[in-house]
Amino acid sequence: MRYQSASTKIADPFRAGAELGEKLAALHPDVVLVFCTVHYLDAIGDLAAGLQDVLGEDVVLCGGTGDGIYETGGVASHGVSALAINSEGESRWKAVLVRGVQADSAQAAEQATRQVRAALDAPITMAFALADGLKADGARMVEGLRRAMSAPWFGGLAADDRQFARSMVFVGTEAAEDALMVLAATGRVPFRINAASGWKPVGDVGRVTRTEGPVVHEIDGRPAETFLREQTGKTMGGMELAVLPLAEYTGDDGQFVLRSCSHFEPSGSVTLFGRVNEGSQVRVCHAALEEILGGVDTALADVRDDGFEPAAAVIISCAGRKWLLAESGQEEVDRTIAELGPLPLVGIPSYGEISPFRSKGGAYSSAMFHNVTFVICVLGR
Q1: DSSP 3-state assignment of 50?
Q2: Helix (H, G, I), strand (E, B), or coil: what is residue 137?
Q3: Rounded distance between C-alpha atoms, residue 208 and residue 204, angstroms
Q4: What residue segments make up the domains of the chain, in order of their start?
């Protein structure tokens, strides 16, 4: 397996794609994963066409928009980054795009996974999924993917520079809102996937007693806002909503996923960036900036076990983390490179992250939908 990343800030979409293609052509890639900022939103097809003009139409090409982009050379608020993979005959790749995630995210995800599995006609080794972050229900999307695929996978929700207006995913030159893309591989793909946040649950445990989708109406039989106010000591106006996460416990092992707050309703309900289950236990979380960055270290702590040799990386990190950090996520890229070396790297700040947790023994939990979390997939030789 060989990898190469590249980026460009050329404003013209076709020329940007062509420049990336020229930078990646010597690798003769089988697949190229592409992330772009929303400045290319209305011409992603042209961006993809520019890449295909240089690399050919047989290359598997897919990706989506982010709240900025990451690449080995740094972070940017305008531009395109791409990771090219040459499998050297060890694996095969396929990407599919399915529309209609707003109507039923679970069904769209299950449909996409079944399509990509049928196209590969072999067991899936690993996969990546990205959906419109303004239309998809991340938690329901995970449910659908879980039903159709048992292999480890990761991904997230596409973003749009904090405008909360439009985001997009694409496969080949077909780009769409209200859609989901799944990229899957079969064969030998060395990888490690993990997630961590650095946030620590504090205060009392509450039980979600009434919820509707992403809206939590009541915790412990009282308005959800009352629980948050009592646990934080802050009024609604004093809370930093997007970076005020709730830990939702997923089982008896103390494992939890994070849900950050979107906005408060006059009724005292709280809308989250993702649904929680009625009856689940929750706690308010807190973290200093250094602890948040420590999530990167935690996610990478055991990546070299069993002699695994890192060769490339894909980061999906919450846009809320970027908004908190002084250097807009550069700190997370720097920590990753310090641990893994200056390898090919791409990624985006997202509106929701998807990943399993990886144990020290190498076992993976089921994939889960996260907020304010750092997710990384490290690819090997």
Answers
A1: helix
A2: coil
A3: 13
A4: 2-193+299-380, 200-286
SS3 323: helix
Q: Which CATH code of 2.60.40, 3.30.420, 3.40.1130, 2.40.30 fits the domain covering 200-286?
A: 2.40.30
Residue 224 CB partners (closer than 8 Å, separation 6+):
216, 217, 218, 268, 269, 270
pLDDT band at 243 (very low <50, low <70, confident <90, very high): low
The two beta strands, 245-249 and 256-264, are: antiparallel
Instruction: Tell me which residue of 36, 106, 90, 92 sits closest to 60, measured CA to CA.
Output: 92
**Per-residue CA distances from 163 to 133, 160, 183, 270, 369 (Å):** 11, 6, 27, 20, 22
Q: Two tokens at 236?
A: 């609604």
Q: How far is Cα 280 from Cα 260, in angstroms, rounded to an integer?
A: 16
pTM of full prediction above 0.70: yes
Give the contacts of 234 (CB within 8 A, at least 6 positions apart). none
116 within 8 A of 95, measured Cβ to Cβ: yes
Contact predicate 43/13, CB 8 Å: yes
Residue 374 in tokens: 């750092």
Cα–Cα nearest to 69, from 23, 25, 110, 35: 35
Residue 77 contacts residue 162 (beta carbons within 8 Å): no
What DSSP character marks residue 358?
A: B
Structure tokens that stand for 332 in this block: 């997370």
Token pair belonging to 304: 């070299």
List pLDDT tens digits, range 279-334: 999 999 988 889 999 999 999 998 988 889 999 999 999 999 998 888 889 999 99
Q: Which residues of 46-72 are buried (b: 16+ CB within 10 A; e: fewer)?
A: bbbbbbbebbeeebbbbbbbbbbbbbb
Residue 107: C-alpha distances to residues 48, 126, 136, 184, 354 (Å): 27, 20, 11, 18, 17
